[in-house]
Specification:
Two copies of one chain form a homodimer. Chain A has about 200 residues and is mainly alpha-helical. Chain A folds into two domains: about 55 residues, Homeodomain-like (Arc Repressor Mutant, subunit A), CATH 1.10.10; about 130 residues, Orthogonal Bundle (Tetracycline Repressor, domain 2). Chain A has twelve helices and no strands. The structure holds a DNA duplex (30 and 30 nucleotides).
DNA sequence: CATACTTTTGACCCGTTGGTTAAATCAAAT
DNA sequence: ATTTGATTTAACCAACGGGTCAAAAGTATG
């Protein structure tokens, strides 16, 4: 019942994270994780019975790291635009530090769409509350009347897209110049905020 | 020198498209393509020497089908918002009919970012012309001054995201109801247009 | 029909890969 | 030091998967 992750266990998990997130479930070789962790392949199976188990551990962590952020939007009772700014700032920072995770999640989920039920469970509990909050801003005349879901999907899409489409964006718009692409990303959070606010404010 | 695709050759290509686009390069088994095409596995190698070759054929077709659409935006000399509407309508229709292709391209490119050079070549030739066109709309006071690239990236992202994130979007916002999700997508092209226009028009 | 050439197949090859196992090493605890 | 249990390893296994090959089936040409 070793609840505290062993040194090696954490070590394995870190290695697994790195390889799985970069290469995907199918592209990952257990041997490569072992190498990355500097241990024997059999040790992987000692700590995590199978590739499936190990993958699930990695995926779950990545998923929970990225999804529940949405709840930020409902917790605070500051003005909506303020919360929005705060959220975008946080979320893009998070992606910036883990640029491969969104693409990883998207790909693995579309490989196995039904598995999402296992991961979500009660996660979306307070989404209706968020809808209410947004709709109140509409009746208050602060933002244009529209389906709140459109706003939220646009919000996430605008944050995530430049990262999951990195090779294309970098190549098409920035002549494959990594530095220019990076400075574009740094500016991105303000651009996304302005873009959304300009669009939805009355 | 058989330039005209044989019946079987096209048959194989179709089967390969289906499997590769759904399962990805690594997730695809040659045997599954053979089954899908109703033929023997050895025949795959008779027509396409290797898995790599076959994959490349599939990827190239998918890539060319989806990327050059951007050029529409520069060809016409109608008012920008009109061209924009036309583009969004077309592009979302295209995705609607091939909903898995964008995710496929995104994933495979991020697995192999350098390969993009092979596929792009002179493709982005008239992108500067598009920038000029947009910037002219800015000096004409029709749209707000901003980096044209931000507009284009937002445009593509807003179109593509609901499809590549289908499982999450469908689950989080539509309780996994396929029909509701579909009707959301149908409405999407108008929403995206409004969202962008509202944001960038002066 | 006979020859030659293309298309298709079943059987096989062999490197890879996830997973197992039994033994060795290590770390307390007695 | 010896026992006991957890950790780590090398060697191995079976299945999988891409690719090959020789022969069969099909098709045209003389």
């Amino acid at each position: 019942m070793g609840e505290i992750p062993t040194n090696t266990e954490q070590n394995i998990l870190n290695a697994a994270k790195k390889v799985f997130i970069e290469k995907g479930r199918q592209g990952t070789r257990m041997q490569e994780i072992a190498n990355e962790a500097g241990i024997n392949k059999a040790l992987l199976h000692y700590y995590f019975r199978s590739k499936e188990k190990l993958f699930e551990a990695v995926f779950l962590e990545a998923f929970h790291k990225f999804l529940p952020q949405i709840e930020q939007l409902v917790e605070s009772d500051r003005p909506f635009f303020e919360v929005l700014k705060f959220f975008i700032d946080n979320y893009i920072n998070l992606i910036f530090e883990n640029p491969h995770i969104p693409g990883f999640i998207l790909h693995e989920l579309s490989q196995n769409p039904d598995s999402i039920a296992r991961f979500m469970s009660q996660r979306v509990s307070n989404l209706p509350k968020l809808y209410d909050k947004i709709e109140k801003e509409m009746t208050d005349g602060i933002i244009k009347p529209m389906d709140p879901r459109q706003i939220l999907i646009n919000l996430i899409g605008l944050c995530v897209f430049p990262f999951v489409a990195k090779p294309i964006v970098k190549s098409v718009f920035f002549q494959n110049d990594e530095e220019v692409y990076q400075s574009f990303l740094l500016d991105r959070k303000y651009q996304v905020y302005d873009f959304i606010v300009n669009s939805i404010k009355t």
